Amino acid sequence: VQLQASGGGLVQAGDSLRLSCAASGRTFSRYGMGWFRQAPGKEREFVAAITSGGTTRYKDSVKGRFTISRDNAKNTVYLQMNSLKPEDTVVYYCAADTEGSGRTIMGWYDYWGQGTQVTVSS
């Protein structure tokens, strides 16, 4: 499975961005998908996840601002980020969990995409 993340960029505080993560393979609908982020010198942290059945989970600090969704016909998971804050400035990674659980812990994920940089200016 190959994951290709895109959609990062430079925006101002309060703006929106939508990240996309396209997956290869024909079993995407069975995967749980997650978004994580990592700041320089810090551990990668959970942001949002969606199970194969569409159940979503979020980091508390992004609830109400970020929305994860998936389009199984396009083998793509999205992260809609609204009301962006300077502290959201990090590299975002997508990941696939072949068990479909969409968990919050990195170790449960089997495949990772390359990161996409999000920079929010104040």
What's the gist of this structure?
This protein is an all-beta fold and 122 residues long. It is built from no helices and eleven strands.
Question: What does this protein look like?
Answer:
Helices cover 0% and strands 48% of the residues. It contains no helices and eleven strands. Strands 2, 4, 5, 6, 9, 10 and 11 form a seven-stranded mixed sheet that branches. Strand 5 and strand 6 form a beta hairpin. It is globular, with a radius of gyration of 13 Å.
SSE inventory with pairings:
Elements: E1 3-6, E2 9-12, E3 17-23, E4 32-38, E5 45-50, E6 56-58, E7 66-71, E8 76-81, E9 90-97, E10 111-112, E11 116-121
Parallel strand pairs: 2-11
Antiparallel strand pairs: 1-3, 3-8, 4-5, 4-9, 5-6, 7-8, 9-10, 9-11
Unreliable residue stretches:
none
Helix-strand sequence: EEEEEEEEEEE
Largest sheet: 7 strands, mixed
Ends distance: 37 Å
Count of helix runs: 0
Based on the model shown, name its key terms.
122 residues, mainly beta, 7-stranded mixed sheet, 4-stranded antiparallel sheet, globular
